[in-house]
Amino acid sequence: MPRETRTQDAPPPSLTTQHNHTTPKTKPTKQTTKTDPAVALQTKLSVDWRTGVAATDWDNIAKKEHLDALSVEMRKLEGSIREIYAEMLQLQQREQEMRDLNEITNTRVAWFSIFTLLVTVGTGGFTVFHLRGFFKKRKLV
């Protein structure tokens, strides 16, 4: 069985990563990263992910539209209110879906309990009928 040979410069295959990036303003790019194992173990990655109002560049908006600090703060608050309202509507929708699911589950449990009760009563009646015939045959009753 042949042994695997590597040169000093090539990292192990598991430490080579490829990333594809696509943004609306640029063309798709491909990036290949080769990492030294010793450096990889000591590397820390911190990601600051912002969405909505927090991701908006308010300084550029203020400069473009010639807004003062109070107007910028009012727009930030308006954006925050819109996000809170949208989140509230989403929560109400999820609550309605959960309520519907809960009602369906309760209905199914009720029908299952009725079915279980009928099976139990049926089995008890069959047992009594069968034992009565058994004891009459043996002339014990």
Summarize the structure.
This protein has 141 residues and is mainly alpha-helical. It has helices spanning 37-42, 58-65, 69-137, and strands spanning 16-21, 29-34.
Description:
With 141 residues, the chain is mainly alpha-helical. It is 59% helix and 9% strand. It contains 3 helices and 2 strands; from the N terminus they run ββααα. Strand 1 and strand 2 form a beta hairpin. It is elongated and about 105 Å long.
Tell me the total number of β-strands.
2
Task: Please give the largest β-sheet.
Answer: 2 strands, antiparallel
Structural class: mainly alpha
Shape: elongated
Average predicted local confidence, pLDDT: 81
- Number of helical runs? 3
**Oligomeric state as shown:** single chain
Low-confidence stretches: 1-14
Helix content: 55-70%
End-to-end CA span: 84 Å
* Largest sheet: spatial strand order: 1-2
SSE run:
EEHHH
Rg, rounded, reads 35 Å
Percentage of residues in strands:
5-15%
